[in-house]
């Protein structure tokens, strides 16, 4: 060939160590064609016919022969498009499996990084996505992960809603038509919300870990799990603290026979009224709810508000002295074991209009 160099006819048909046969002949011919393309020189008619004449008739079937002839005759860009065409690459996933067509309950990807919008707030999310693989004598080796991966980008185009999640899950199944009938998406991250202080009218940000799970099986369902931090003052510890305070009061005033002035008692309380303090701790309430079919993405904020109202001692953000005092009063008025917190949450979520079912952990 003029651009790719002379290609002897004998090289394609000669057998033995000195020549090339079968597969290697085809490779050499392709290489010659590519050389011509790389030099941006269109092969002459004689050059094309020379390559076609060297095509080993006994090596390729008629379809392969036709493809190669069309490949050689195409223009430069069309040649490159054919050579690099994904449709010509091996598709191992679509071949039959070796496991007797056994079904798989879930195949997919985990910990995919996506920018997600939930309730109008941006989240740097980790996403798990997958489908099942049906049992069939014609079952394929695996799923096409790239199809699911590309479809997940639709979740980044707007606020997450039940309708959007259902749309993407249906697209998962369409992309594996006849091979799958179940799909799932799980989104995890932290939702940052601005929360007001108790008394000073300031606001600051608080993070709420959440997991949003959507499944499409015989029907579509969404579950939402959120962690709510709160302060819990132990009732037993508070009782013991009051007991110690009573003992101290008896020790200091037990021998007095005159009436105690209110001012003196008040002074004593300020100086010695807390010889022991009850312990408080930061606790977590994990609320997992199944959203009803009419619920929107804003249910996550409603869930957090419901929980914090029920608990009464949500962890604060910015705190001035007046806020600290108000928070101390709230803790004193809401002494509770974790069982008490669970009962409070149980009572309020029984009445939540967006909640179809729920589970409380703490």
Automatic annotation (TrEMBL):
Record keyword Transmembrane helix present: yes
Any GO molecular function: GTP cyclohydrolase I activity
Transmembrane segments: 20-38
Domain of life of the organism encoding this protein: Bacteria
Alphabetical UniProt keywords: Hydrolase, Membrane, Plasmid, Transmembrane, Transmembrane helix
UniProt-recorded name of the protein: GTP cyclohydrolase I
Lineage: Bacteria, Pseudomonadati, Pseudomonadota, Gammaproteobacteria, Enterobacterales
């Amino acid at each position: 060939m003029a651009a790719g160099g002379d290609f002897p006819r004998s090289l394609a048909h000669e057998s033995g160590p000195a020549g090339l046969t079968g597969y290697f002949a085809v490779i050499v011919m392709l290489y010659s064609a590519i050389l011509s393309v790389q030099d941006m020189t269109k092969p002459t008619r004689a050059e094309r016919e020379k390559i076609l004449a060297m095509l080993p008739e006994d090596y390729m079937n008629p379809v392969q022969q036709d493809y190669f002839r069309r490949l050689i005759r195409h223009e430069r860009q069309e040649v490159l498009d054919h050579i690099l065409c994904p449709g010509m690459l091996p598709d191992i996933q679509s071949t039959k499996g070796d496991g007797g067509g056994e079904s798989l309950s879930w195949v997919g990807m985990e910990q995919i990084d996506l920018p997600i919008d939930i309730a109008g707030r941006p989240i740097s999310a980790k996403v798990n996505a997958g489908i099942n693989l049906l049992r069939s004598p014609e079952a394929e080796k695996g799923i096409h992960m790239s199809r699911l991966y590309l479809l997940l980008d639709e979740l980044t185009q707007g606020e997450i809603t039940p309708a959007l999640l259902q749309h993407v899950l249906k697209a998962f199944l369409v992309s594996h038509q006849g091979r799958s009938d179940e799909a799932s998406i799980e989104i995890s991250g932290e939702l940052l919300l601005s929360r007001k202080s108790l008394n000073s009218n300031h606001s600051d940000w608080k993070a709420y870990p959440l997991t949003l799970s959507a499944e499409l099986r015989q029907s579509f369902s969404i579950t939402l799990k959120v962690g709510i931090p709160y302060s819990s003052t132990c009732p037993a510890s508070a009782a013991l603290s009051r007991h110690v305070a009573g003992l101290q009061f008896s020790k200091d005033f037990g021998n007095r026979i005159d009436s105690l002035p209110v001012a003196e008692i008040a002074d004593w309380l300020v100086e010695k009224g807390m010889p022991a303090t009850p312990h408080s701790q930061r606790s977590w309430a994990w609320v997992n709810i199944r959203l009803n079919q009419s619920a929107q993405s804003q249910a996550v904020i409603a869930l957090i508000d419901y929980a914090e109202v029920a608990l009464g001692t949500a962890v604060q953000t910015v705190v001035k002295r007046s806020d600290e005092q108000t928070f101390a009063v709230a803790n004193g008025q809401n002494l509770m074991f974790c069982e008490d917190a669970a009962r409070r949450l149980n009572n309020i979520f029984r009445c939540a209009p967006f909640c179809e079912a729920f589970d409380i952990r703490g």
